[in-house]
Amino acid sequence: MALIELNNLTKTYRMGDIDVHALRGVNMKVEEREFLAITGASGSGKSTMLNILGCLDLPSGGEYVLGGVQVSGLGKRELADIRNEKIGFVFQGFNLLPRTSALENVELPLLYDRAGRIKDPARKAIEVLTRVGLADRLHHEPNKLSGGEQQRVAIARALINEPSILLADEPTGNLDTVTSMEVIEIFRDLNRQGMTIILVTHEPDIAHQARRAIELRDGRIVKDVVL
Amino acid sequence: MKWKSLIKVALKSIMKNRMRSFLTMLGIIIGVASVIALISVGRGTQADISGKIQSMGTNLLMVMPGASGFGGVSRGAGSWHTLTIADAEKIENEATLVTQVSPVVRESAQVIAGRNNWFTSVQGVTENYTVIRSWPVDRGAFFTDRDVKAMAKVAVLGATVADTLFPGQDPIGARIRVGNVPFTVVGVLGTKGQNMMGSDQDDIILAPATTVLFRLGDGKWINSITVSAVSEQETEAARSEIETIMRRAHQLAGSEENDFSIRTQTELNEMATSVTKMMTLLLSAVAGVSLLVGGIGIMNIMLVSVTERTREIGIRLAIGAREADVLVQFLIEAAIISLMGGLLGILLGLVTAGIIGKAISASVVIDPVTIAVSFLFSGIIGIFFGFYPAKKAAALNPIEALHYE
Fold first, then answer.
1. Could you tell me the CA-to-CA distances from B336 to B13, B15, B290, B370 in Å, in that order?
2. Residue B105 bridge partners (DSSP)
3. Cβ-based neighbour number of residue B360 at 10 Å
């Protein structure tokens, strides 16, 4: 069974009096251990799709099945719990808490981990920070870290809950080319170790680092290639 | 969710914005401080007044001329001339529940001693008076019942009068003139201090009731009769006994109203405390308003804080916080701010109470219940006024919150 299954997924926003069709029937399967890049021009619906995949938003129509769970019909609480247990987010703007050390930022998701799957948050946080190469930056606050380092803290934060999928929204959008490649290399490493990754980007260079690329245009998939 | 981590998160966010947190607390601090200060000083004043009433004498009853206010038009107590020395003697002879009785004849006169003179109150009493008012003589001796019977022209001076007329001298045996009547000073009273109305109780001369009544007064009517009951518990019984005796003495028919009134110390006490209670209530209302304003201040700042931290809320929601988690986080923050404010307010209130107490030389009574209630109440205010902002934070859309600039 596929990790992610989208069946005729649609999303319609109402902006004033106009209906905006952000997604117009998307069908897609993502298997475990895939490294998928979603590309497309701005307004193509890729952010909307990532929001739905990340359970931050619900589709207007169609089905979204994540790990065998029908997400479309869930309530806010269940969505929050799925975000906590199954999804790791990496954002373009890093979205770290200011004036809070790397370690505490990384521990943050465990605050909402009701199941208590991770017994020793501090140890686990150090482990994931080491994994992204920041073992020597544990107590630095975000404003003392470079952009690349901040994004690596964000990746560590996304990993701490041992999610089944890592979602990255333009993770290199705020970084220079060299740093971008460093960050992408981390993603490739994680993928080699078995992590399923979906990455949204508008940069072809970045998309090429993935193993599969999907292009969206006007809310539909127009290209789906294995690289 | 772990409470310990939640409280840690809230404390951290409060410490990150020290100045703002302090300003938010200020309303609560001032509110709680004023409640504590006012109640402490109010209670203290009340205790002072009770103490002063107590110092007037133990188990005191006062028979005053005039009705105490039943029926149609009533004149104030003391406005009629109805009491005589005979009434006092009747009570002393017939009442079983009283220990001491003294008539009181009150006159004012210019008192002259050598080159000094002084205008003061002259009270005609009997020897019992010192016992009833627990007011012993300091020097010399009090006049005796024989002096009263003989209408002797002897006087006992209050401390203030003694100091004024005989500065640095021993007045015992000295001659003074009260109005036109010459008196011999036989004693000086101990210092009693101010009464609850603030007038000097030592500014007085005591002389035998008969002497004052016939030499200085009108020879018939006395101002009041001071009685002490056998015990505090028997005060009410003594009152009805005196009432019966007095009605018989004044030959009042069954339907006639009393032409005298009897006041007990308990009543005086109640009168006085009702005044201070009123004051405390009034001031507490003012303090309550400032607590309310403090609460609104918390709401205000929390709303600003929610807007400022929209992105943070977005992050928390994205990584799996439920709405309830965000709600609880902000509620805890509001509660901690207001509880800290409450704590600081209690400290400030106690200090203020001490300063006010010193300034108006009143006692300060610190009531642990008041302190506990103010502390709890400030927490409740925080949660109450923190609820709306917290709700607002929890209801944020995570996608919009994440992209909030």
1. 11, 11, 19, 20
2. B124
3. 10
SS3 B22: helix
Contact B320 A161 (CB under 8 A): yes
DSSP bridge pairs for A198: A36, A167
With CB atoms and an 8 Å threshold, state whether B317 touches A113: no
Q: Is A85 on the interface with B (CB under 8 A)?
A: yes
Beta bridge partners of residue A216, listed in sequence order = A221
Torsion of CA A148, A153, A155, A158, to 10 degrees: -160
B16: nearest CB among A57, A95, A99: A99
Cβ of residue A150 closer than 8 Å to a chain B Cβ: no
Interface test with A, best of B7, B9, B319 (most A CBs within 10 A): B319
Residue A30 burial (CB < 10 Å; 0-12/13-18/19+)?
buried
Phi and psi angles of residue B129, each rounded to the nearest 5 degrees, phi first: -55, -40
CB contact B16 to A (< 8 Å): yes
Q: Min CA distance, B388 vs chain A (Å)?
A: 20
CA separation, residue A34 to residues A81, A185, A213, B89 (Å): 23, 15, 11, 115
If pLDDT is split at 50, 70 and 90, which confidence band does B40 have?
confident
B20: contact with A, CB 8 A cutoff: no
Rg of the Cα atoms in chain A:
17
The mean pLDDT value for B216-220 works out to 85
As a whole number of Å, the CA-based R_g of chain B is 33
Work out the burial of residue B331: count CB atoms within 10 Å of its CB; fewer than 13 is exposed, 13-18 middle, 19 or more buried.
buried
- Least reliable range by pLDDT among A208-212, B169-173, B285-289: B285-289
pLDDT digits (tens, 9 = 90+) for A79-122: 999 999 999 999 988 999 988 899 999 999 998 888 888 888 88
- Kindly determine whether residue B322 and residue A81, on different chains, have CB atoms separated by under 8 Å: yes
- C-alpha A54/C-alpha A62 separation (Å) is 16
Within 8 A of B312 by CB-CB distance, chain A residues are 97
Cα(B259)–Cα(B247) distance, integer angstroms:
8
Rounded CA gap, B151 and B215, in Å?
Answer: 9
- Here the ipTM equals 0.94
Instruction: Test B2 with A111 for CB contact under 8 angstroms.
Output: yes
Q: Chain A within 8 Å of B394 (Cβ-Cβ)? A: no
Residue B272 is encoded by which pair of tokens? Answer: 């006085």
Q: How high is the pLDDT of residue A141?
A: 94
Query: Is A95 within 8 Å of B322 when comparing Cβ atoms?
Result: no
Contact A57, A22 (CB under 8 A): no
DSSP per-residue string spanning A20-63: EEEEEEEEEEE-TT-EEEEE--TTSSHHHHHHHHTTSS--SEEE
Between CA B315 and CA B166 the distance in angstroms is 87
Residue B18: which residues within 8 A CB-CB, separation 6 or more?
none
Q: Give B161-215 pLDDT, tens digit per residue.
A: 999 999 888 899 999 999 889 999 999 998 887 776 677 888 999 999 999 999 8
Among A77, A83, A100, beta carbon nearest to B319: A83
Residue B70 has pLDDT above 70, yes or no: no
Min Cα distance A114 → chain B (Å) is 6
